[in-house]
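$ ./design --mode recover --in tokens.txt
reading tokens...
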């Protein structure tokens, strides 16, 4: 099939690469000409495990192309996938739809023949109707259907999740569009559930899923706080809870709060929609409040540990919002660092993948190290803020030699298994003493 994908970000690019690998002819469109130039020259613009290899292979096979021209990308497409950003509105925190609506208006000019327009972006309930109106108004002759195809990939695992999705959700009221999408997802029909639902249900499934996962994270974070105060151990509690199949053992790792480009914005957008439709979403609202506060509480934990040390130096491992990605959007690490800077802390930071992105935000306010060990040199405390595997494998004896004062605030519980207290560190983790 011929597929045009609008937006070559963390969703659009892996989707394009994946669909090309399945044998489709894919053109990825982006209005960011610099990005398109880089992609055309064979440079992957985001870090995702396994992406580069498939990207290069499919460019070579002529299955994957890039363009800044909407016309070129849409003209012959059977399916046009919208994967542009839906960031939070700066004031109301509802999903800001300006990129979606601009893309819909632009693509409408070039659709030819029957075309399925599918939204992979996370969009509020009713957006499909709105896109339909925009396309019809812009091009009254267009023969098309609008389908909701929410994306559930996890950053850091985008390629894996493309080929091994837990489920595929398709929101459409059109039989004709259903047939096209069935053909598109034929390679998945024997290995995953493909759920066809009303378009508005599909739009809601994405928000309801992300809000639920955010609540699960916040729940275990609150349990961790409780365990610290009561003397229980949140690891044991999470294990005991997770063995119940109704609860499940995933998303029960306590930490510095959820972040990233999805959970914060999608919980806020869902809360906004609740108000708009007059439906009480008190659990989601409490989750948002609690998670916002958590970043401040975590910064205070770090500051507290060095409060009696003059000219203290804080070493930070981890800037990305999670491991496996260079994405720092709404990263708890970046938000904690921001609060440390506001408290005049002296910081040296390191991340295996997110240094370039972080530099653009942190500028000269921190020092940058080129390795884990360089970061901790003469530091008084090591704060671990992202769960990169290598952090958990570090050599404590080497750390001890390099640090000025041997304190660790481990907000990801990466070193607990190495018993740092036994090695002479003041060690603070989450949810147990
Ligand atoms: P992103 O910001 O990384 O990428 C969006 C891209 O769209 C940018 O490259 C931008 O230049 C381009 N763009 C914007 N308007 C355009 C237009 N009119 N024409 C052509 N290109 C245009 O965003 P992302 O992280 O890929 O997220 C995209 C959507 O997918 C969002 O709605 C997000 O909520 C949703 N989503 C994201 C994830 C994730 O893990 N990042 C997961 C599931 C769903």
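writing sequence...
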């Amino acid at each position: 099939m011929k597929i045009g994908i609008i937006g070559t970000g963390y969703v659009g690019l892996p989707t394009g690469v994946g669909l090309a690998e399945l044998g489709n002819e894919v053109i990825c469109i982006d209005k960011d000409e610099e990005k398109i130039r880089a992609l055309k020259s064979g440079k992957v613009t985001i870090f995702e495990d396994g992406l580069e290899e498939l990207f290069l292979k499919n460019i070579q096979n002529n299955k994957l192309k890039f363009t800044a021209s909407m016309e070129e990308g849409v003209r012959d497409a059977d399916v046009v996938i919208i994967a542009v950003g839906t960031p939070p509105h700066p004031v109301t925190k509802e999903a800001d739809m300006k990129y979606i609506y601009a893309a819909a208006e632009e693509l409408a000019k070039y659709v030819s023949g029957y075309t399925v327009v599918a939204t992979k972006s996370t969009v509020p309930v009713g957006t499909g109707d709105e896109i339909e109106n925009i396309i019809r108004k812009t091009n009254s002759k267009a023969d098309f259907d609008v389908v909701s195809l929410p994306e559930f990939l996890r950053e850091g695992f985008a390629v894996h999740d493309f080929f091994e999705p837990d489920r595929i959700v398709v929101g459409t009221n059109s039989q004709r569009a259903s047939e096209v999408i069935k053909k598109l997802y034929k390679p998945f029909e024997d290995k995953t559930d493909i759920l066809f639902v009303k378009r508005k249900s599909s739009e809601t499934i994405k928000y309801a899923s992300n809000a639920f996962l955010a609540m699960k994270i916040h729940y275990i974070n609150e349990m961790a706080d409780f365990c610290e105060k009561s003397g229980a151990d949140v690891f044991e509690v999470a294990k005991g809870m997770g063995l119940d199949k109704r609860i499940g053992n995933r998303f029960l790792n306590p930490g510095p709060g959820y972040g990233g480009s999805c959970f914060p914005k999608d919980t806020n957008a869902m809360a906004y929609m609740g108000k708009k439709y007059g439906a009480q979403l008190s659990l989601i609202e409490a989750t948002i409040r609690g998670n916002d506060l958590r970043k401040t509480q975590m910064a205070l934990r770090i500051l507290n540990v060095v409060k009696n040390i003059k000219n203290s130096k804080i070493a930070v491992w981890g800037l990305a919002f999670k491991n496996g990605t260079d994405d720092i959007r709404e990263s708890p690490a970046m938000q904690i660092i921001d609060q440390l800077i506001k408290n005049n802390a002296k910081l040296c930071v390191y991340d295996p993948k997110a240094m370039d992105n972080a530099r653009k935000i942190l500028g000269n306010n921190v020092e940058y190290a080129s390795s884990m060990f360089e970061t901790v040199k003469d530091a008084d405390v090591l704060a671990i803020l992202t769960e990169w595997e290598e952090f958990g494998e570090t050599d404590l004896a080497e750390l001890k030699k390099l640090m000025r004062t041997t304190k660790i605030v481990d907000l990801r519980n990466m070193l607990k298994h190495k018993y740092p207290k036994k090695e002479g560190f003041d060690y603070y983790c989450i949810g147990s003493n």
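exit 0
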